[in-house]
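step 4 of 6: structure.
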Amino acid sequence: SQQGEEDPQALSIQEGENATMNCSYKTSINNLQWYRQNSGRGLVHLILIRSNEREKHSGRLRVTLDTSKKSSSLLITASRAADTASYFCATALNTNAGKSTFGDGTTLTVKP
Amino acid sequence: DVKVTQSSRYLVKRTGEKVFLECVQDMDHENMFWYRQDPGLGLRLIYFSYDVKMKEKGDIPEGYSVSREKKERFSLILESASTNQTSMYLCASSLRGGYSNQPQHFGDGTRLSIL
């Protein structure tokens, strides 16, 4: 089964609201990354958080990592219609140098 | 900015054909990847290459092969296309980075239909 699993599968919010997506994984990781995918396009890297970090910010994005619970969350504050996309977490295992395992993604819809 | 270019956005082929999907990156990245993306199954790694002429099987290599003769180019080959290989194929590249995995840069994908 997938190493990383996002929750919820789909999320619909109004513009200006915050969006929170969660990712759970099963085994010890080296780092965890979040990616975004607009419809019909490739994935774009958003943020990387290492296993020894607990929180990281990038603009309106905030990522947390709880290695004891094997989970991460991505918070998008003050969402915009342009944030509508699918969001994926990707985990890099300690033993799989170079490779990451992607979850199924959360589809976010931001209504104007 | 890193650019990963996939040769076709849409491709239609027939069952039994040999299909080539090409991917080129312009940032001298050591690692290159081929994934397929299917609804409900997320991204699944088909093959991974960490250097020229080097390759490693991913999670679903059956029915596929790859070629990396030059650092910037990574080709995915469907030896004898079948309808269950209809999918979105995504190529990605990254710096090597050892055990500290580097961000992957993706192409826009090839939507392949096998009839």
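step 5 of 6: annotate
 - Chain A touches chain B through 26 residues (CB under 8 Å).
 - The first strand of chain A starts at residue 4 and ends at 7.
step 6 of 6: archive
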